[in-house]
Each structure stands twice: as C-alpha cells, then as structure tokens.
Specification:
This protein is mainly α. The chain folds into 2 domains: about 190 residues, Lysozyme (Orthogonal Bundle); about 50 residues. The protein is built from 11 helices and 4 strands; from the N terminus they run H-E-E-H-H-H-H-H-H-H-H-E-H-H-E. A hairpin with a 2-residue loop joins strand 1 and strand 2. Helix 2 packs across helix 9, helix 7 packs across helix 8 and helix 7 crosses helix 9. The longest helix is centred in the first third of the chain and has 32 residues. It is globular, with a radius of gyration of 28 Å.
Length: about 300
C-alpha cells in the first residue's frame, strides 16, 4: 500500500516538475531572445579622476589613509554620474553662489562652507523628511535659536541672506567649541551634543578618526566632492557654456512694514505676479501677511523686462 502511494505520488509530481522546468526554460529563453535584432548598447564607464590632495576649510584630508580616500572616491564617483542633478546645481550655482559666498566672507567663514549648503539643499528651497527646511536646512527650533523668524506666513529659513548669516553664526559657535572646521561641519549635520558625546566616548578630536552614523560620516566628503567637481567641471565631463547657466536675479527692493492683504494684488501693483514674487522671496509662505509683530520685510521685486531677457 505504501509503495502504491509512492508510485502514485511520483506519477503526479514528475509531470508537474517537467511543466515547471519547461516554463522556466521558456521564460529564460524569452529573456535571452528579447534583445535579438536590436542594436547593442555601449558605455564608457570609468572611475572619475580623484585628486591627490584635498582640503576642507583649510584642513587637509588625510588621503594616505585608505578609509579616507575610499570615502572621497565614493562621493566623487556618485556625483560624477548624477548628470542631470549636477548640471542643475551648476546652473543654480551661477545664480546664488556669488551672494552666498559674499555673505560667508562677510561673516568670517571659509568659502568651503558654501559646499555644505549645496550638500544640504542643492541650492533649492527644500524640506527634508525631518522638516528641516530652506537652503541651509534648519529645523524650526534651531532657526529660531539663531534669530530666524518662522511661522505660517513667513519662514526666514528660505531667505538666502538671513539663513546664511544664521548658519555662519552656528559655524563660529561650533568651531569655538571643537577647534576644528571639519568637526564644526559634522556637528551641523548631527548636532553639537552628538559630536561632544562621540568625542568623549571615543577619545578622538579629529573628524577622520571619529566614528559617526553613515550620513554624518559621508557629510564632509560630500561637500569636498562638490567642491572638487564644481571647480574642475570639464575634467569631470561637464561642458557648459555661460549661456547655459542661470543668470543672477535682477530686482529692486521694496520695504513692507505693515500687513499685505493679498500678495497677488501686491504683485500686480508692482507689474509682476505672485509666482515671480514667490520665486524671488521664498520666505513668503502664504498669500497674505498679517505681520502682527510689525516687522520690516525687504521684498525683492523683479526688474522690469528681466523675465523676457535672453542670453
């Protein structure tokens, strides 16, 4: 009886297994055959050039250490092949870079911190999953701590000048505590208290010797990678003409000390529209301004004829 059952079981399984094998073979053959008769696809994918020396804010990267070099290689390689993203950053760099650099210089902060801004937001008014916002990706509480006004109608995290000065104040404070610009940069990503904690338990004062979570561990290297590529564009295969870049915005300034019932009406009175008013003043977060605090706001008004100008 047991033998009979085994025979019946085999009789059922063998055709089933044969069917599955045949189906798998057919699928595999179909996959192989799908490309017949089509042109081949060729790529020339190589490791991008890696500098022999690199620095951040005047502090040399110890590239003689394999882990440090590999970290920089990873970021340069990743960014080199993000073609569309990098081109857009280069276009925005021409528009916003000079202003941000000028403010950093006025605040006594090394020019390399500009590349942290790019690493944070790609020069766009973004909001992170953690609700950090603006060009320097401040959390609301931290923004208020450094003098930025944040509510439903106005959010100065999106004001390039004010947020850059706030970021500079943070960097000065962090450097005064850690004595290292790279550690100051790391703390901008992970927080002052976290850097203190890791320096204490690991007995290290150097960014490149300290273990951080992956995001912070990649943070300075990503800024250096942006710096490397943006300052050697053609070497990395980005051939953009001046006409390909976005020109700096041209505008006049109007001071607003009271309320604005409707920003669209305000824009119409200044021969423009709310879309452009918002583009020039990302800190405007609603279509009205109550301004109960009676603060004075500098509103940038697009220069007449600028929108139509072609390069």
């Amino acid at each position: 009886m047991i033998k009979y059952i085994r025979v019946r079981t085999l009789a059922i399984l063998i055709p089933l297994l044969s069917f599955c094998t045949s189906a798998d073979s057919a699928d595999s053959l179909s996959t192989r055959m799908a490309f017949q008769g089509k042109s081949t696809f060729s790529q020339d994918v190589r490791l991008p050039p890696i500098p022999e020396t690199a620095s951040f804010a005047g502090e040399e990267l110890p590239l003689k250490y394999f882990d440090v070099r590999e970290s920089l290689v990873r970021e340069i390689t990743s960014l080199s092949y993000l073609h569309g993203t990098m081109i857009y950053i280069m276009q925005l760099d021409n528009r916003y870079g000079p202003e941000i650099r000028r403010i950093l210089k006025e605040e006594g902060i090394h020019d390399d911190f500009y590349y942290l801004c790019i690493a944070e937001s790609m020069l766009q008014p973004l909001v992170s999953p953690a609700n950090a916002a603006g060009y320097w990706q401040f959390l609301a509480a931290t923004a208020r701590e450094y003098g930025l006004f944040v509510d439903n109608e106005v959010d100065e995290r999106y004001n390039i000048e004010k947020s850059t000065r706030a970021a500079a104040a943070y960097f000065r404070k962090a450097y005064a505590e850690f004595g290292s610009w790279t550690m100051a940069a790391a703390s901008y990503n992970t927080g002052l208290s976290n850097v203190r904690y890791r320096m204490n338990i690991q007995s290290k004062e150097n960014y490149y010797d300290t273990q951080f979570v992956e995001e912070t561990g990649r943070y300075v290297f990503r800024a250096v990678a942006f710096k490397t590529i943006l300052n050697n564009r053609e070497r990395y295969g980005f051939h953009l003409n001046q006409a390909d870049l976005f020109p700096p915005l041209e505008y006049t300034v109007v001071e607003v000390k009271g309320s604005v019932e409707n920003w669209s009406d305000f824009a119409a009175k200044h021969n423009t529209n709310f879309k452009l008013i918002k583009m020039y003043n990302q800190w405007i977060r609603a279509n009205r301004l109550d301004n109960k605090q009676k603060r004075t706001y500098k509103v940038l008004i697009p220069a007449k004829g600028f929108r139509e100008r072609s390069e």
